[in-house]
Amino acid sequence: MRKNILIIDDSALIRRVMSDIINSDGKLQVAGIASNGIEGLDLIMTNPKDYDAILLDINMPKMGGLEFLEKMNKNNIKIPTIVVSTVAKEGTKETIRALELGAFDFITKPGSFVEAKSDTFKQRILKELKVALRIDDEREATVSITDRKNGSSSLSVPAGKKIQTGKSIKGTKLVALACSTGGPKALQDVIPTLPKNLNAPVLLVQHMPEGFTQSLANRLDEMSNLHVKEAEDGEVLQNGVVYIAKGGRQMRLNKVSDGKYKISVTQEAARGGLKPCADIMYESLVSSDFEEITCVVLTGMGGDGTRGIKQLKEHKKIYVIAQDAATCTVYGMPKVVAEAGLVDEVQPLKKISGAITQNVGVH
Known about the structure:
CATH topology of the largest domain: Rossmann fold
Low-confidence stretches: 137-158, 161-171
CATH architecture of the largest domain: 3-Layer(aba) Sandwich
Number of strands: 14
Distance between the termini: 57 Å
Strand content: 15-25%
CATH superfamily of the largest domain: Methylesterase CheB, C-terminal domain
Number of domains: 2
Helix content: 25-40%
Shape: elongated
Number of helices: 12
Structural class: alpha/beta
Mean pLDDT: 89
């Protein structure tokens, strides 16, 4: 049976294009169309079970996408919603807010008719809908790791329990965090609850295109005790600061002659389609002198981070914390790293920051 999709967008062209894309797939069909949030909310309130997923514009007359999401939350209606947003600067803050309000993910809205009719836009729409609806079993765990424990396909340790006990180490420490789909909302439960005197800097890779990570950093900075910023090329690493990898770039950490560490932000090819890529960040830490590195893997599609953490573990003392399945928007990245036998501790989202603080300590 086909899954029913509701399109809410004030552009007749975009509604037509997205309808054609959705109806071209044998597992999806358009079940409703609305030109603004009020019309969309009316359709949902009348028959909420008629819709399996929503494609939502942000800027619309009468009721925009943000107000629509707020109304959905107020009425406790949980339908996977994918925001179709522009990349324009004035739209980034709204997109980040939409993700905070529970939007599953966002897709860059085409800037022209040619782009709207492109295969790239079509495949992105179909991929996001199928992942959100768990069609085709998501197929997000694509990293091949040869050292899975006893060939097990799942982690047998319950959330909230440590797999092994590690002694607290005094000295230089670092936190390196990776997330993707569902990350902007999940990060609200992690970064703002970390203490101001955390005894480590934090490197953070969130899969996002260029133009959005600055808004994400600004938003988290407003909410947090720690200083949160978008990473800049050449800046020196400092304790108590969260550095978010710049969208559309790769981030590495390099040790310089005076024993300090500088961030490298480069424009280079994507790895596995990802810019930024968590594997690249983790691999750059192999030659560092940190006495312990706490790796944290939160919600997200795919398996980015696992290869890098595996390589890091072969050379450094690390402690790996993964988000549990129940609280993930998409249980992909934490699942892959857990199945690889690399995880020391599994925690629900709201306990991740406590686990980080307990392991890293304060000063």
